[in-house]
Amino acid sequence: MSGVVLEGVAKRFGSVVAVDDMTLEIHDQEFLVLLGPSGCGKSTVLRMIAGLEDPTEGTIRIGARNMTDVEPKDRDVAMVFKSYALYPHMTVERNIEFPLKSRNVPKEERRTLVAAAVSSLGLDDLLGRKPSELSGGQRQRVALARAIVRRPEAYLKDEPHSNLDAKLREQTRAELVELQRRLAATVIYVTHDQVEAMTMGDRIAIMEAGVLQQVDAPQRVYAEPANLFVARFIGNPPMNTITGTLARVGDELVMRTEAGAAPLPADVAAAAQRDGVERAVLGVRPEHLVIGSEGALDAKVTVVESLGHELHVICHLADGEMIIVRQAADVTPPSVGSTVRIAAAAEHLHLFDAETELRVKP
Q1: Which domains does the chain have, with CATH numbers?
Q2: Who wins on pLDDT, 243 or 141?
Q3: Which of 42, 81, 99, 108 is the most exposed, having the fewest neighbouring CB atoms within 10 Å of its CB?
Q4: Could you check whether the bond before residue 106 is cis, i.e. omega within 30 degrees of 0?
Q5: d(Cα 86, Cα 26) in Å, to the nearest integer?
């Protein structure tokens, strides 16, 4: 296997910028997830790595070779599409064998490689079937087996679970991660599903409007979002954000909003003063909020959602901003229509510059 490097890669379709100045290194044997909303450019990045799209600018390297102008068939990567792209007239065995046959791999070697891939994905009883006779999960495993037999330098997967139901997606996520580790494979995986990204990736590369926003380990992306977009995109429910103005009250720097004033931790306050922040956005995860008499912000409870294992108390501040508080299922929630006070532990507060939308780093 090999690493993949993009240096200053851009892709424009006329006046539309699909990918803008992207520099990213995917390490050898790493499972990297490209995450972002639909239309953010993540599939275009994957297609440029595969050679299905030519970059307008920049360089793409796979291993030690510059692949920017190399034909797709010569790049030694295997791509799994969301539609699986199986040949309907071929059996499972012939579908899996096809990439080897097209490269003139000897028959005995083909047989050995197909048998290994079939065994690793539990397809032994399906070899004589055609794609129309398979379930969505089975088709996905066939597409993976067809990619595995090639033993390429990198695997490229474009939302391969998007056609599966929720239960099967959960099962195949675990199978794919286990397979990647067993093969010691370099995998670049595209998804808009943050649960897939958080549970599967060694690192997550988050994109928005063609621009790379943050690249980091899943837990660091969740705990230390680089900007407001990442903070609001990662997490379910997403991070609560409250807009206000910074002001000094006595010896403390506080965030003033229509719902009240929230004191800032000393290190965050010092960083905000250092960076000259005036208008700011305060961020806090739903699980780090508490409803109680000591809270700094007044809010009205509008909905209480029960998810079985937890409760989501949905409130609105005086200015109309929505706040979600996550509570344990055994805690009695406030009644709908009541006014409550909300507090957050200082160590879990995030502050963003309202102008640049960047996180204020202590």
Answers
A1: 4-232 (3.40.50.300), 239-353 (2.40.50.140)
A2: 243
A3: 108
A4: no
A5: 28
